[in-house]
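Assemble and predict.
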Amino acid sequence: MERIEKAITSLQRMQGSGPESGLHPLCLFVITVAYLVAMLSVPVSAFTMLLWFALYPVVMAALTGLDFTRIFTGSLIALPFALLIGLFNPIYQTRTALRVGSLAISEGWISYLSIILRSMLSVQALLVLVSGKGFTGLCRSLESVGMPRLLSTQLLMVYRYLTVLLQEAVDMTRARRARGYGRRHLSMKMWGAFCGQLFLRTVARAEAVNRAMLARGFDGRMPRYQPVRQRWTLRDTLTLGASLACFALLRFVDISRIFTHLL
Amino acid sequence: MSHHYIQFTDVHYAYPNGYEALRGITFRVTHGEKVALLGMNGAGKSTVLLHTNGLLLPSKGEVNVGGIPVTKKTAPGVRRAVGMLFQNPDDQLFMPTVEEDVAFGPLNMGLEMAEVQRRVREALARTGAGGLEKRSPFQLSGGQKKSVAMATILSMEPEILVMDEPTAELDLAARNKVIDIISRYTHTCLIATHDLDLACGLCPRSILIDGGKVVADGPTEEVIARLKEMI
Ligand SMILES: Nc1ncnc2c1ncn2[C@@H]1O[C@H](COP(=O)(O)OP(=O)(O)OP(=O)(O)O)[C@@H](O)[C@H]1O
Ligand SMILES: [Mg+2]
């Protein structure tokens, strides 16, 4: 539970917390989507190809001044899911795929590792995306290229509701731990009570937030606060072009093989 | 300019779970008056305040703000006039950055961007929250949140100010800022508070509620004496 709490708070803090990259949010968005498509479409057998894609979050963090360790820790949240999903691969796929010295690594292990790596990289890419402008910035820029206002408002509301839910979960965990006298695990029955309470509290909080919004004239549309309108610059075009070229290269050319040839 | 009054007439309210929080509240706060709303925990102060801008509607009786009976229909208009500071700033702040939160009200009022920016700057400076613009409200301390919440109201330049515990959690400097803001405010002000010094210093008149009823209404000193008797 503590680990979940940490992940949750760090995710929450992450949003919009980093320095702004200076890139147009739309540019960053397209780059992220292209990255995800290229990275997720690497065949399972081409594990070495995938490794090159792991550079992206590191490079992006360096370029935009984000703290990569925080991005990495944030991406650990995906780990439990990935570990579970790929669990049976090593058991069922036993054909040898790779030999390192006398050690034979089976296909199953390779695909297991690749699932884990992929999910972590996906989360890392998304974190890079939201760290600069935040989720709101993203919705706004999608709006500017034609996403219906209604949809972006809905997304922002869902997002707001999620943070309320997470906040409540964190508070309740803390309160429980403060009175739990070191008991670490909840029994099934306590879990049920915990979830029920969480639901009720979240509804109450969401209601209160909604009241606060109404009190300040909310009419169903999120207003837009853009003191300075960000323009698409040459830098965006160049960055976008370079990134797309890089992804294409990494995806269609097996660089590792070229290197081994050269050596 | 005598239309910024708040009139409660025999207001009853029961929460959805059936609990009767208000049982016949009647009072009038006239234009330019500063009134403190006193009472023990659970007396019904916050519930009264939520009625002043139609966030809760009476199950019986009437709330009238500046000549307009508060109903579901009139509520949006009333909310432009009544700025409301909530007891819990966590509820009040919902945008990703402080700056956007303070801009939320003015933007909904349809003001020009330049005007919105001016108001955001000014409101944050007045509450001593200047410098927090780009921060996320989640990452602020309780007192800082309260100051920012105050700024979100001031930026709307309301004609009636309704505040729930404006000084709770504040340090001395922040408390002085709030007191300063309230004392400079020339319009109508209704303040629910446990801060008796604040009530004495700022509000010539107080209303005491207990169990959802008005039990005293008059000069603050007398009402406080009555409150102390109750304890
Ligand atoms: N959402 C709710 N559902 C049911 N009952 C509620 C709800 N909110 C408040 N109450 C009850 O209504 C009564 C009045 O509550 P209210 O919040 O107005 O008190 P208050 O005077 O503001 O107290 P405090 O000084 O503690 O802020 C309380 O007895 C409370 O238990
Ligand atoms: Mg209250």
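The interface with chain B takes residues 12-13, 15-17, 134-136, 160, 163, 167, 205, 208-209, 211-219, 223-227 of chain A (CB under 8 Å).
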